[in-house]
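Quick one: structure for this chain?
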Amino acid sequence: MSTDLLLLLKAFSWRLVGTLDTFVVAWLVTGEPTVAISISAVEFFTKLALYWLHERAWLNVMRRL
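Got it. Here's what it folds into:
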């Protein structure tokens, strides 16, 4: 399996955990499950992309050392 695919799978699995946490916190704060779902949906995709980019950047740093 390629490094890129493994990083993507790792990012996806971590985002599931993080998004569940965001959903619970947003629901507790707002009291509205539909608002919590909306927040969680947006957060899932933005943080998935940011995590993947972060990992790729660190791989580039490590290769230069």
